[in-house]
Amino acid sequence: MTKVLESTGMITALYRSKGEIYSQPESLDFEEKVMLRVAVAVRAGDEILGSTWAAVPERLNEGRTQAFLDAAKLVALHMLRLRAGADVERRLRTDLVATAIEGGPGSPEALGRLGLFGHAVAVVALGLLPYDFDAEDPVSESRVIAERQRLADALAIHLGAVAPRSAVALIGDVAYGLLPFVSSVSDGEHRAKRMMASFFGRLGSKVSAVAGVGIVAKDSSHIIQSRMGADRSPRVMLDLGVPGAVAAISEVQIGELILELGDMVLARGDQLSGPMARLRDYDKEHNGRLLETLDCWLNAFGNGAEAAEAAFVHTNTFRYRLKRVAEVGQIDLSSPDDRFEAMVQLRLLAKTNVLD
């Protein structure tokens, strides 16, 4: 039903309207005969809390319309009252988790109030996959915010069942979890990964996030390292765009370093230069596909036949192009340093595009 209403544009119209919205039964494309629907958005100021619906035999008269609109205001007050209590507890937990993972002087006290002081703790970070939405559309943006909170709440329920002393909070765009272990644990990182994989498994097809797992911090002084590792891991997997992926920083460290290197190059405003710049300029002018040739050759560890197959060209054609790579780029393909430099710059081009 929701998908049908979204496809007809009624949900968007409803949340943009201050009054009632009617849906014509024929526009819903149902096989069975349905009654006319009337709906009004439930609001608290500019915030959309939801909507109320009614099935009616015909359009409401003025008096009933006003009563319907007044009912939506009562619903809003009731929802705000219910949410107020939950929000106070959520804000307190968010503040405590945020203070704990900062690793500063307030971290021990925050861990104590969360019931985690004296425990080894691993930080997990849940990052939402890129979501296409219109930044100027409040409906679209509210869905993203709601999805983040939904995932954070789901994670809190899951970790609360498998690790009762755990704490979860949505901080900015990331849901952080604190997983306690006994101080002697040696496989805490593996167990944390298994918990997160189980969480994604329960979500099934609804997975729209990735997770990173930090090291097991034996005390509050090391918790900042755990959080940094948990933060850095999802970035690599978000770049890959694989839903439900879980990794520790030790597994994706090189990929994350490539992204950090791209950030550094971008911040300094560096431009592509040297052999890669010469190959790029040649490709643009002659459509020579020399950068692709070099990339295929490096990925194939110098195996010409395998590289030619990856480039979808005959071996002889590939050999000629590789010769042109050395000539145009002025690269010594027998030099380990030249090959390493080429591989790093090609990875930057492929992963970040900051040098393109």
Task: Summarize this structure as a short list of keywords or feature phrases.
Alpha-Beta Plaits; five-stranded mixed β-sheet; 8 strands; 16% strand; flat
In words, what does this structure look like?
The chain is of the alpha+beta class and 356 residues long. The protein has 3 domains: 82 residues, no CATH class; 150 residues, Alpha-Beta Plaits (2-Layer Sandwich); 81 residues, no CATH class. Helix content is 57%, strand content 16%. The strands form 2 sheets. A 5-stranded mixed β-sheet has the order 5-6-4-7-8, sandwiched between helices. A 3-stranded antiparallel β-sheet has the order 1-2-3. α7 packs across α8. The two termini are 45 Å apart.
Please give the count of helices: 13
Structural class, judged by helices and strands? alpha+beta
Envelope shape: flat
Number of domains: 3
**Can you give the helix content as a percent range?**
55-70%
The CATH homologous superfamily name of the largest domain equals: Nucleotide cyclase, GGDEF domain
Strand adjacency order, main sheet: 5-6-4-7-8
Known CATH architecture of the largest domain: 2-Layer Sandwich
CATH class term of the largest domain: Alpha Beta
Q: Strand fraction band? A: 15-25%
Q: Per CATH, what is the topology of the largest domain?
A: Alpha-Beta Plaits
How large is the radius of gyration? 28 Å
| DSSP summary, beta strand count | 8
The parts where pLDDT drops under 50 for at least 5 residues are none
**Main sheet characteristics:** 5 strands, mixed
Order of helices and strands: HHEEEHHEHEEHEHEHHHHHH
Give the overall pLDDT as a whole number. 81
Span of the ends, CA to CA: 45 Å
